Amino acid sequence: MDEPPVLHSRRSLTLRFDIPVSKTHEFWDALRDGRFVTTKCSKCGNVSFPPQADCPKCMNNGFVLVDVGREATLLTFTQVKVTPASFAASEPYIIAIGEFPGSLKVLAWLEGMDPKNAKLGMKLRVEARTSKEGNPYYVFVPV
Amino acid sequence: MNIAELAFESIKQAVDDAGVDKKDIKNVILGSAGTWYEESLPAVIVNEYAGLDSVGTMRVEAACASGSAAVKSAYNSIVSGEGDVAMAVGVEKMSEVDTPTSVELIGRAGSYMWEFENYGMTFPAYYALYAVAHMNKYGTTEEDMSRVSVKAHHYGAMNPNAQFQKEITLEKAMNSQVVSWPLKLYDACPLTDGSAAVILASEETAKELTDTPVWVKGIGYSSDSANLSRRADYVGLEAAAQAAKRAYSAAKVTPQDIDVATAHDCFTIAELMAYEDLGFCKKGEGPRMIREGQTELGGKIPVNLDGGLKAKGHPIGATGVSMAVEITKQLRGEAGRHQAPIKKGLGLVHNVGGTGHYAYVTILSRD
Fold first, then answer.
1. How far is CA B48 from the centre of its chain?
2. Domain of A50?
3. Strands annotated E in B271-366
4. CB of B122 within 8 A of CB of B107?
């Protein structure tokens, strides 16, 4: 079948966002120091992940940082084979959701293991990483 | 064809079918997620092309449920007395960018900072997380999921408007390329260009326009967290279950009353979970429904007789409107080779946005 005629646009558009993290920079600062923490409302004590400066439960503005805990249980995972354009250079990666004591859940890459050996319920540890651009992030690794 | 030309094809059919003068349309609501086509303000582009002048208009976005959001918004304009006639249009053109860019744009549609920036989530990956949890809890198999795909292609082959009109074998689905384990190419809906349109009218006007009106009996809706890590579990879509309960309650009917349904099968696991979320079976029994053929023609509750998102195609913003078109045809007995037996005169549209971020369930009735 012939391709229908198109006008290949002369214009292209590249978007790169400067994402504000000022209200929760303490989270990122801690991550740079290798600590995985999150926010706890200074009024009602509600713990949030992802961290947020404003409490979604009582709407108070103000928080203290609390440790999330180091060991999580693997709830579910997948291995991404067909990657998005901006991850074209990545090898297939495993994405996992782990649950920490107190039922806080976190989504991150699961590194350092063959997906064939991943079993729901297995123990994971969270580790801080730094991207080649210098941005902090976190991953799971098997315990 | 471009976005306006594509929308026009459906708008013309809807206006002709309803026998309405387009000057009487007071509100035109466009469902379109956008970003993969060149126009930034599609509602006015579409209206201008179709000669819909001086109307109340907007583009609504509820991700893959934008179409149902458009129907709801148009419906609200009628019941609030803003006018006697409104139109909901859904349109998406996804073929203007390359596939990796589409994968990127859809993958970003979660909680960007926490799911995409560092982890490159894709839509198949989101639903794969649900599939793995469902398999682990209920013994659902990859074969169960492939059966949904085989069913979709079976009915797609009967739909002259479907993107894929060819039957496939279970073996072909099972052996297709892994996209995000355990989901394979044939577990995933395609990228699609498409449009759909429906005319909504007040009760009085509808009766003047046609002898075969289809009535909106109840609309249920809900939403859930953007971030998957804030969901209670990964074996069903809570927003969809809530939307279904609200729709049944609004329409004063039960799941057993529904003659025919469309379910949001963006991935095969999504259709299995939809059977459960809609109350067509108990939690965890979705796979048994497909194994036993209960959602085929002749089964307990036929689902996606138009081929579903998998075979008919999934032009994001058009899908919900297209589902309303399909159920309207079914209730009027105009669905041709894939016509379901209509006993109680009730059909259901289940339309999910994102990975259960948005959910709309719309119940339509012949009587």
1. 26
2. 19-68
3. 346-353, 358-365
4. yes
**A87 lies in a domain?**
yes
Q: Check if the beta carbon of residue B364 is closer than 8 Å to that of residue B216.
A: yes
Among B121, B128, B227, beta carbon nearest to A50: B227
* CA–CA dist B21, B339 (Å, integer): 30
Q: Is residue B37 part of a domain?
A: yes
CA pseudo-torsion sign A33, A35, A36, A37:
negative
Residues A119 and A136 in one domain: yes
A52 in a structural domain: yes
Residue B350 annotated to the active site: no
pTM above 0.90, yes or no: yes
Contact of B120 with A93, CB cutoff 8 Å? yes
The answer to the question of residue B185 being in a domain is no
Q: Cα(A108)–Cα(B119) distance, rounded to whole angstroms? A: 6
> Which residues of chain A have a Cβ shorter than 8 Å from any chain B Cβ?
6, 9, 19, 49-50, 75-88, 90, 93, 95, 97, 105-109, 115, 120, 131, 135, 137
Query: Which tokens belong to B141?
Result: 């198999």
Q: Which residue out of B127, B129, B223 would a mutagenesis test of the A interface target, given it has the greatest number of A Cβ atoms within 10 Å?
A: B129
User: What is chain A's Cα-based Rg?
Assistant: 19
Say if residue A137 is in the same domain as residue A78.
yes
**The predicted structure's pLDDT at residue B81:** 96
Q: What ipTM goes with this model?
A: 0.96
Let me know: does A113 contact A129? Beta carbons within 8 Å.
no
CA distance B282 to B279: 6
Confidence (pLDDT) at A69: 86
Q: Which residue out of A13, A48, A76 would a mutagenesis test of the B interface target, given it has the greatest number of B Cβ atoms within 10 Å?
A: A76
Inter-residue contact A72 to A142 (CB < 8 Å): no
Where chain B has pLDDT below 70, the residues are: none
Please report, in angstroms and rounded to a whole number, the separation of the first and last CA atoms in chain A. 54
A97/B114 CB distance under 8 A: no
On whether both A136 and A75 belong to a single domain, the answer is yes
Q: Do the domain assignments include residue A99?
A: yes
Alpha-carbon distance of A140 to A121, in angstroms, equals 14
Q: What is the pLDDT of residue A103?
A: 86
Which amino acid is residue B295, in one-letter code? T
User: Residue B266 in contact with residue B309, Cβ under 8 Å?
Assistant: yes
Q: Which CA distances in Å does B87 have to B258, B267, B316, B334? A: 25, 29, 18, 21
Burial (CB count within 10 angstroms: exposed 0-12, middle 13-18, buried 19+), residue B332: middle
**Chain B positions in Cβ-Cβ contact with residue A120 (cut-off 8 Å):** 132-133, 136
Q: Decide: B311 and B162 in contact? Cβ < 8 Å.
A: yes
Mean pLDDT by 10 residues, chain A (143 residues): 82 94 97 96 97 97 93 98 94 97 95 96 97 96 97
Instruction: Say if B113 is an interface residue toward chain A (CB within 8 Å).
Output: yes
Q: Which of A53, A68, A83 is the last residue of a domain?
A: A68
Residue B13 token pair: 């059919």
